[in-house]
Amino acid sequence: MAEHTFTFDTAGDLTLVVGTELEGVEQQTFLICSKDLSRSSPVFKVMLYGPFKEAQNSTSACPWTVGLPEDNPVAFKTFLHIMHSQFEEVPDVLGLKDIRDLLELSNKYDMVHLLRPWAKTWFQPHVTTQQVID
């Protein structure tokens, strides 16, 4: 587990461990409110409160931790900033790879709607003018 936990909600009940050291991207740990995540994503709602292994076991005395080793921790952190209304932490400029990572993650968890306010700003630097050839 990563040494540092990013706290998005001091009363959070869920720790997410995102990414894997094997991918060359540093794994990150986030303390969040499971309800915030489930409100933002129907996929997480089913995952956390349905019949899946990630759901909290009410008989467990252990903290609730969910691993997401296949996800990009940098992109996931951006989503968490958006979900928690920390808009000053959302980047104004993103490279194409970063945009792709966010789009893949948003599609996987059905959270595309969260990106709408930033999409035009992020894509604008990458738009090129093309001449129409007759």
TrEMBL record:
Transmembrane segments: none annotated. Residues 12-92 form the BTB domain. It comes from the Eukaryota. Pfam families: BTB. InterPro entries: BTB/POZ_dom, SKP1/BTB/POZ_sf. This is BTB domain-containing protein. It comes from Mollisia scopiformis (Conifer needle endophyte fungus).
